[in-house]
Amino acid sequence: MARRPLIITTQPGWAFATLSELRTAGAGEEYVRFHHRDSTLVCRDGIPALPKDLSTPAEVFGEVMSSDSRRGEDATRRIVKLVRPDAVKRAVLDLLPYVEGTRPRRYSVVCETLGRTSVRRQDLALYVERAAQSAFPGWRRSSDRAVRIFCKADPEYAFVGVQLQSNLGDDDSGQPGALRRHLACGLLQLASIDAESVVLDPFMGTGTILDAALRQYQARAVVGFEVDSAAAEIAERRLNSGKASIFRQSFESLDTAMIDSHTRMVTNAPFGAQFERVDTRKLVRFFRECRQAGARITVLASREQSSHLGRGLGLRRKNVIVMGQPAAILYETR
Predict the structure, then answer these.
(1) Are 202 and 265 in contact (CB under 8 A)?
(2) Is-contact 89 135, C-beta < 8 A?
(3) φ, ψ (nearest 5 deg) of residue 160
(4) Residue 315: what are its φ and ψ, rounded to 5°?
């Protein structure tokens, strides 16, 4: 089959974590394009050269077709000219072997637009729908485990793709406000977690970061602290492993003697309406003591608190969005 580019969508601000994962997977930076407006990465290495099962993106698509704005014509005008039944059929058949869990001969069409596009979302969806119907007249439109044909467009860039992976429904904690797993993986990726790492989360919650550290990154061991008994109980069930040490205690009870040069503190400092914020001065003091003991720190915090933490600890800072709220990641360079 022809090599098909991967189109990777991320949560706003999180693309740099996925870029790090792509580098680990062997993607050359010269083959990756970034579209800032919608946090979309286009990896020209694509399928089958790169794995489709990535941990840090929101969604991964195999490219059917794409277009940029050119000569005063916006991207939606150009993509409409490319959406032909023969091109759609050829691309979908190329990508079908990499689509898992779908029922035979079923498809769905989803379309999103951002900004003021020349072609309206409803019309764009209709163009894609008609091309799919003509390409596969024996297929039935269905939302139940169907091949998902997705179109996303803004005035500068538009693409049609087949969904290969989605991490948007990956929260299995059952707790409102819990960190999504692919964002936890983004933090772990930035922390360079490997099989020698001991991952420490002093604000463990339901254990999403620690669970991902064991399952996706094969960490040697994980350690978590949590004062909320309901959240800690969920974490204990999820982390029922000889590699996990769970403490139903405050972060302030942590003994820095348990920290060594393999310790990677990866955590989500509580913020948002559902969580009680921790005093910033306490956090700075706590993180500083842990660093002095040998831990490397990667922390997700509110935008306001992160500015104080970054200055107090000398960490790099990257602004992101989490569940619609402004936040920032603080991390150390390798």
Answers:
(1) yes
(2) yes
(3) -120, 130
(4) -95, 155
Domains and CATH numbers, the chain: 4-166 (3.30.2130.30), 181-331 (3.40.50.150)
Read off the amino acid at residue 84: R
pTM of the model: 0.91
Which amino acid is present at 246? I
- Distance CA(26)–CA(16), nearest Å, equals 15
**Residue 159 tokens, joined:** 């693409």
Roughly how many angstroms between the first and final C-alpha of the chain, as a whole number? 38
Q: What is the pLDDT of residue 34?
A: 80
Q: Return the residue matching tokens 């490219």.
A: 63
If you ran DSSP here, which 8-state letter would residue 262 be given? T
Task: Please compute, for residue 184, the number of CA atoms within 13 A of its CA located in the half-sphere on the CB side.
Answer: 29
Residue type, 318: K
Helix (H) or strand (E) holding 280: helix 280-292
CA 189 vs CA 19, 59, 61, 294, 331: distances in Å: 10, 17, 21, 19, 11
Strands (E), 231-279: 244-247, 263-268
Who contacts 271 (Cβ-Cβ below 8 Å, separation ≥6)?
277, 301, 302, 305, 325, 327
Rounded CA gap, 180 and 183, in Å? 5
> 10-residue block means of pLDDT along the chain (334 residues)?
84 92 79 75 79 88 94 93 96 93 93 94 97 97 94 94 88 70 96 97 96 96 96 94 95 96 96 78 95 97 93 93 92 81
d(CA 107, CA 160) in angstroms, rounded, equals 14
In contact, 166 and 54? CB cutoff 8 Å: no
Query: Which token pair is 99?
Result: 């689509």
For 102, the token pair is 């779908």
CA dihedral (100, 323, 63, 4) positive or negative: negative
**Which phi and psi angles does 18 have, rounded to 5°?**
-70, -35
